[in-house]
Design brief:
The complex is a heterodimer of chains A (227) and B (328).
Chain A (H helix, E strand, L loop, with lengths): L7 H5 L1 H33 L4 H16 L2 H15 L8 H31 L2 H9 L4 H16 L1 H14 L11 H12 L2 H30 L4
Chain B lengths: L10 H7 L11 H31 L5 H4 L5 H37 L4 H16 L2 H18 L9 H26 L3 H9 L4 H31 L11 H13 L2 H32 L38
């Protein structure tokens, strides 16, 4: 009974746990930036006047949104790296880091694109009409008028997506990169103290995700467009 | 000179066709030329990307017939893909039913008048929403045996199937609990006041008045969450549950070394199922919106979405970003 709640293994292996979470944070930050950029480009494509871009954006979103992340990341490791021999770095861990980041970003970007598109839909019609009336081109009105307002109205959903993405970094376990889920499984095997270990990792993730939730909630209130 | 020059009449309709958004004017002659140039350049860029991908695949001989041939044989389908698909659907179906139950119980629990129901329900929901599903599945998979050992009890056998279903239930159930709660909170106060006024008790108000309306309003978000659940079932492959990803991708790759072919086939199956479900969600959303009054006109006149505000404002968010998810 005492064995169950004996937290000494957690403190003994604190270094490994911290290492796992540091990998999670690195993955989350880089994927967050890349997916935001890619998602914005995709959203722009999906509302553009050129049909081929709209089509390409739609196809991309439908493919990536409906494929399990596990499949995408498994393909990053087994397909891109092993079969197609795509090498982004000579160091194997760096290589798998970038493959995992690209897989995660490609997947998350589809969701960001859809959130942004929903945001664009919330911008009052008059804004776009006024932008056109003063002679702004499509790019100018998107960049100066529509997207700034769209972003501000979707901060909360974007926050949810980033939180989900942070949790999704655990799936990177299938892309052969050592992060917190991999570390937890390994510590389960080595230490056997499942309850304390699980508690430690659960608390670790709550430390990451709960403040993110509060931050995005605060930001969305602060940045809300008053209409 | 009897002929008047009113030929350009049909033009506006033609131009209108190419104006699907209010973001840009109906293109005039110059804009049309420019758009065509951009379209050609864009097509070239996309074709260029496609060519690079094709070249890479060709270089590694991924178009070789023997890599794709297995998928033309009946045995592949009866031995791997269909059992895998059944495994996925089985886990997703059981997980969905249990998650819906979990969601109703805890969603209503969070709305309870008694703090000793409300607070624990809230804690459970927030906990399972805050931790990654994979971590949870790992714990459900390896936790109970060690606990049993600590109590000197018999070894509890947790099958991968049990771990996957339990994980899917707890996580998606918690998200659904929030969806239900938001749905009930979104119903105008007059509804419950009227119900109390005609003498219903709390139970009756919930059961007869609030829940039916909330479920109708939340249907799109619920279906969208079930799509997430179906996709999440692919996590089972990590603990060796035999589902579509395990059998259709990993096994095929192990047997024939055809990662690309296996990705295309497995991915296509997932995409078809999820798009069918997504289509259902859109249909339900359109149906539930028809009966609702809309407020100020926005950019999405046709789509009519109001500010997407995550869980608390559900049902305005498109099915793709149902509440907290972003899915796995």
């Amino acid at each position: 009974m005492d064995v169950l709640f004996d937290f000494t293994p957690v403190f003994d292996r604190m270094d490994d746990i911290a290492q796992g979470f540091w990998a999670t944070i690195r993955l989350a930050l880089m994927s967050g930036v890349l997916s935001l950029i890619l998602g914005t480009v995709l959203a722009g494509m999906r509302v553009s006047p050129v049909r081929i871009f709209r089509g390409a954006g739609t196809v991309y979103v439908n493919i990536f949104r409906n494929t399990p992340l596990t499949l995408i990341l498994a393909f990053c490791a087994l397909g891109l790296s092993d079969t197609l021999h795509i090498k982004l770095s000579n160091q194997s861990t760096v290589n798998f880091y970038w493959l995992a980041v690209f897989g995660l970003s490609a997947y998350t970007a589809a969701f960001i694109c859809e959130a942004l598109r929903a945001g664009i839909n919330t911008v009052p019609l008059g804004q776009a009409e006024a932008a056109r009336a003063i002679g702004l081109t499509f790019f100018q009105s998107l960049r100066l008028i529509i997207l700034p307002q769209a972003f501000r109205s979707v901060i909360a959903p974007l926050g949810s997506i980033f939180i989900a993405m942070t949790k999704n970094t655990t799936v990177v376990i299938v892309a052969s990169y050592v992060e917190s889920a991999y570390m937890m499984r390994q510590l389960f095997d080595e230490e056997g103290a499942t309850i304390p270990m699980f508690a430690a990792f659960a608390i670790g993730f709550m430390i990451l995700t709960l403040p993110m939730g509060f931050f995005f909630g605060w930001l969305s209130k602060r940045m809300a467009v008053a209409r | 000179m009897t002929t008047s020059v009113d030929t350009p009449a049909p033009k506006p309709t033609k131009a209108k066709k190419s104006e699907p958004s209010v973001l840009f004017d109906a293109p005039g002659p110059r804009a049309r030329v420019r758009n065509n140039i951009i379209a050609v350049v864009g097509t070239l860029i996309l074709l260029g990307i496609a060519y690079v991908v094709y070249g890479r695949l060709d270089e590694e001989n991924q178009f070789a017939g023997e890599l794709w041939e297995p998928f033309l044989e009946g045995e592949t389908w009866t031995e791997f893909i269909i059992p895998g698909l059944l495994g996925t659907l089985y886990a997703a179906a059981i997980g969905s039913v249990l998650a819906l139950l979990f969601g109703v119980v805890f969603g209503l629990g969070r709305l309870s008048d008694h703090w000793w129901i409300r607070v624990p329900s809230g804690a459970v929901v927030e906990f399972f929403r805050a931790i990654p599903l994979l971590i949870l599945i790992f714990f459900i998979f390896s936790g109970p045996p060690t606990i049993a050992t600590a109590f000197n009890r018999e070894f509890i056998e947790i099958t991968p199937f049990m771990a996957v279903v339990a994980g899917l239930t707890l996580y998606n159930g918690s998200v659904l609990a929030e969806v239900f709660r938001a749905g009930i909170l979104s119903i105008p106060k007059g509804q419950s006041e009227a119900a109390y006024a005609i003498g219903l008790r709390k139970n009756g108000v919930m059961r007869l008045i609030l829940v039916p309306q909330a479920v109708t309003a939340m249907m799109p978000a619920i279906v969208a969450q079930l799509v997430v659940l179906l996709k999440d079932s692919a996590l089972g492959s990590i603990i060796a549950y035999e589902e579509l990803l395990t059998l259709g991708f990993y096994q095929m790759k192990a047997n024939y070394g055809n990662a690309v072919a296996a990705l295309v086939v497995t991915g296509a199956i997932y995409i078809m199922i999820n798009m069918a479900l997504g289509y259902l969600a859109t249909r339900l959303e359109a149906r539930s919106r028809r009966s609702r009054k809309s407020t100020a006109k926005t950019m999405g006149v046709g789509i009519g979405t109001q500010p997407a505000v995550g869980v608390s404002g559900v049902n305005q968010t498109p099915p793709s970003i149902s509440g907290d998810t972003g899915g796995v």
